[in-house]
Amino acid sequence: MTNAARITVHAGWEGFGVPDFSPACLKLKTYLRMANVPYTSALGDPRKAPTKKIPFITHGSTAVGDSGLIIEHLKRTLGDPLDARLSPEQRALGHLVRRTCEESLYWPLLHARWADDAVFPHVAEKLRMIMPPVIGGLIVSKIRKDTLRNAWGQGISRHTGGDILAYGRADIDALSVTLGNGAYLFGDEPSSYDATLFGTMANVLAFPKDGALAEHARSRANLVAFVDRVKSKYWATPDAKAQ
Ligand SMILES: N[C@@H](CCC(=O)N[C@@H](CS)C(=O)NCC(=O)O)C(=O)O
């Protein structure tokens, strides 16, 4: 795929053994790698993003936010090397996989990272890396408060820890059965939906590593092998940093 205008991905960054510890950011960067689209990456500040969330991209003079909308934009402007071959049934199943990752399993993962007082300091430490030195701690506390308010609004944190875990485990099991024994969701070549599955599952497995959600994910050998496969094929090199 050729690309005249430069693409900068404003996203998260490496941490906890994953190339980007934001599932949506890791999905987008993996999509770009799978589609063979060159990009550089920059630390993403949600406050500067079109949707106030990361990732967002600048592509020439155009800025686009939201990993799903960005991928649609890339397909429109650069072509669709990964998904063009998929049947309507595969697209429908891929869509359900994507929604399960992003709208369902996202929440137990968020809860595991942000709600537990023993786990959150590790997240805070990573966030502090892009914060101003003196007031950075206060900003991180505010982000945590807002995130936990969102988790309450969505409903996940109104449940017991056991129920939240059961909710996440059920999603992991469904993803494992859907993936089956193939290399990727739809055969030997990846689709955009594999990028999504990787963005989520690599993060579930990575952090919190000792948590019950990761422990359950480790028991699903095909998901573990899938994450290893995508990592070794598409993440042999780190991101080139934007100047
Ligand atoms: N639907 C969005 C979700 C992106 C998202 O949840 N981004 C998080 C980081 S993982 C974020 O920017 N959070 C900052 C905030 O909510 O203020 C996408 O796929 O891009």
What does this structure look like?
- By secondary structure, this protein is of the alpha+beta class.
- It folds into two domains: 72 residues, Glutaredoxin; 147 residues, Up-down Bundle (Glutathione S-transferase Yfyf (Class Pi), Chain A, domain 2).
- The chain contains nine helices and four strands.
- The protein has a four-stranded mixed β-sheet, covered by helices on one side.
- A hairpin with a 2-residue loop joins strand 3 and strand 4.
- Helix 1 packs across helix 7.
- The longest helix has 27 residues.
- It binds glutathione.
List the helices and strands and how they pair.
Elements: E1 7-11, H1 23-34, E2 40-43, E3 56-59, E4 62-65, H2 67-78, H3 88-114, H4 120-128, H5 136-154, H6 161-179, H7 192-206, H8 212-218, H9 221-234
Parallel strand pairs: 1-2
Antiparallel strand pairs: 1-3, 3-4
The structure holds glutathione.
